[in-house]
Write a structure and sequence with these properties.
Length: 421
């Protein structure tokens, strides 16, 4: 009975245990009990439990918590820059119960407001991810692709993708040259992105067209979410920035219930990976007094990484950027974050990453200049099909941002924005 209950209670159950498997366990236990001559009553109890457990297990979401389910749905949703529809639908669904007002900018960013008085605090995360756009269909039925966002060429080959065609999702693979026919001098070479092609299983261009695919259709990585081996670490695509999308949802949920001394405006933006375009247009609409971008950070706790590149480690808490190539945070705002972390006993990781840009750059340059900061959930292997994030970092980031926004009352925001000598 304990093991069955543990099975149902296990928060890391990734939906792999089906009702059938649980029923098999019950039958196995039944056989053991039978040979041990157990009472009829305990057999009946065991059966009832087994059936209810099987019923519960049939809906995997019940065996996991809300946040994990939210992170999975956000990570699995395809949404390359400019084609954020599926992510936008999740954001609106999740923000609507807490927002007093939802609107959109002209590039499709979602703007959800809570609160009617006090300074305007823009809390930002971007919905888009890296992807591609179908460029050309060959007579043999292969597709070439315009890559969208900052891909490494070596991340592109031998991967699964989905094409969002007019007749629905089409599965594809980026073909890799077969080693058996590859000349020796080409075996260690990185193949440039313009040499790669998508294979959708079609024999010719007409079969590709029949699948509902044409030039201009978006292509997204296909890399389903998984809990890494019962750990608190989540494997998935697009943690940059679906981790941030989940943070802003959870922050709005908490602040709507707990209260805050400002107008909170959550902006879920589009086209960050192609030049922070949605943050630019969203900030035009929001007119923020303070900007907080939430991003996937760059974890450096992997073989070969150097501390001068990034110092963040998974599981060591939220990251705060002190510099990146697109933005410098307001120093008083960083001071307030340090105070907040200390008061709330949240460990912080400070980082300076030179090859990195984010939405806070567009926010800081809006509305006559806005004190801004980039707060991150550290991620290993961003801008690739498979990234890893840590659930504890996520939870502590939500705690930090909630506590920070509660401190952003009129007097504090006035102090942060005061540049008089
Ligand atoms: Co990002």
């Amino acid at each position: 009975m304990k093991s069955l209950q543990a099975l149902v209670d296990n928060p890391n159950l990734s939906g792999a245990y089906t009702g059938v498997q649980i029923s098999r366990n019950v039958i196995k236990s039944w056989r053991v009990m039978k040979t041990r001559n157990c009472s009829r009553k305990s057999l009946i109890t065991l059966c009832a439990l087994g059936f209810s457990a099987a019923g519960l297990a049939a809906a995997p979401a019940l065996s996991r918590d809300r946040v994990e389910t939210l992170l999975q749905s956000l990570a699995d949703a395809p949404g390359p820059s400019g084609y954020e529809e599926e992510v936008r639908a999740i954001m609106v669904r999740e923000l609507k119960p807490f927002a007093t007002h939802i609107s959109y900018d002209g590039l499709g960013s979602v703007i959800a407001q809570h609160g009617v008085s006090g300074p305007r605090v823009m809390l930002d995360a971007h919905m888009d991810e890296l992807g591609g756009i179908v460029r050309r269909i060959t007579p043999e039925g292969f597709l070439s692709m315009q890559m969208v966002g900052g891909w490494l060429d070596q991340a592109l080959l031998g991967q699964r993708w989905v094409i969002l065609g007019s007749k629905g999702t089409v599965h594809a693979v980026t073909g890799i040259r077969d080693i058996h026919v590859l000349p020796q001098d080409e075996r260690n070479k990185v193949f440039p992105r313009n040499d790669i092609f998508l294979d959708v299983g079609a024999k010719n261009a007409a079969e590709v067209a029949a699948l509902g695919i044409e030039a201009g259709d978006p292509v997204a990585p296909d890399a389903p979410f998984a809990v890494l081996n019962g750990s608190q670490r989540y494997l998935g695509k697009a943690w940059d920035d679906r981790a941030g999308c989940a943070v802003v949802i959870e922050v709005m949920r908490r602040l709507a219930a707990e209260g805050h001394p400002n107008i909170l405006i959550v902006a879920a933006t589009t086209q960050e990976e192609t030049g922070v375009r949605g943050a630019h247009t969203a900030a035009d609409v929001v007119h923020p007094d303070i900007g907080i971008a939430i991003e996937g950070g760059v974890a450096g706790d992997v073989p070969g990484a150097r501390p001068e590149e990034t110092q963040a480690r998974l599981g060591a808490g939220p990251g705060v950027f002190l510099y990146d190539s697109s933005e410098q945070p307001n120093r008083r705002l960083v001071g307030l974050i340090k105070e907040t972390g200390k008061a709330e006993k949240i460990p912080l990781q400070f980082d300076l990453v030179s090859g990195y840009g984010d939405d806070s750059s567009a926010i800081q340059a809006s509305n006559g200049g806005v004190p801004a900061v980039n707060i991150v959930v550290p991620v290993r292997y961003t801008h690739a099909h498979n990234g890893v994030m840590d659930r504890n970092d996520f939870d502590r980031t939500v705690d930090l941002v909630v506590a920070l926004i509660k401190r952003l009352d009129s007097a504090t925001v006035k102090r942060v924005r005061d540049f008089a000598p």
